[in-house]
Amino acid sequence: MTQQVPSTEPELAGVRNFRDVGGLPTVDGRRVKQGVLFRSGHLAHATQEDAAFLASLGLHTIFDFRNAADQRLEGPDVTLPGVRNVNLPLTDPADGSEFWKMVRDGEIDELRAALSEGQAADRMITSYRTIIKERTAEHSHVLHAMAEDSVPALMHCAAGKDRAGLSIAVTLLALGVERDAIEADYLESNAAHRRYKVHRSSASEDAMSPEVMELLSPLFDARASYLAAAFETVEETWGSTDRYLTEGLGLTPAERERLREHLLD
């Protein structure tokens, strides 16, 4: 039996961007249940107190969307007793590895050349579109697992913003949650206490200068335009959300109804 989740959001010391997705409204007047669907950044740096809180949630499954390069950089998730951890990378470790090394280590001239004049935001939009089009098997796996028994569930990537944000958005689409509510939840990742902490290898003052942070900000922002690009890709590729769910993700009406039974009040 799922334990009652505290009404106030916890401040976890070693886990960024944690939240319960419960309470979001559907187009037919229902709401996502409290205590069945959570999202966060990675769990590799969870403290003992963080782990005790996470263990109290009665989780069945943790979906980790990081790739092998992320896991090498950050470490494996903390182990929670009795919780299944499913790793479903939504990006290829080799894809962008040099780019993210440049983000961590690059000098200002390199950053200007790669990120200025809208290039950083364009990169994010391309990434969102690619994940929607090319990672249907992974998103299908998540929805089928939750339609069967894999709830309560927690979804996370590194920052809990992009890969986890898209997977949460896909899940909410399947539940019939209002688009405005999906976007509002996604944009919560911009809150100061949630944002991914940018790490730069240089200790010099210039490494985190205002110009550097402005160049990097599109990579670490949650922007409505990114999520809109994902939704546009669904429409452009499959013609409608329903066809995306049935043809793209292989979700039958019966499975979608089971998913709604598990996750909606």
TrEMBL record:
<comment type="similarity">
    <text>Belongs to the protein-tyrosine phosphatase family.</text>
</comment>
<dbReference type="InterPro" id="IPR029021">
    <property type="entry name" value="Prot-tyrosine_phosphatase-like"/>
</dbReference>
<dbReference type="Pfam" id="PF13350">
    <property type="entry name" value="Y_phosphatase3"/>
</dbReference>
<dbReference type="InterPro" id="IPR026893">
    <property type="entry name" value="Tyr/Ser_Pase_IphP-type"/>
</dbReference>
<protein>
    <submittedName>
        <fullName>Tyrosine-protein phosphatase</fullName>
    </submittedName>
</protein>
<dbReference type="GO" id="GO:0004721">
    <property type="term" value="F:phosphoprotein phosphatase activity"/>
</dbReference>
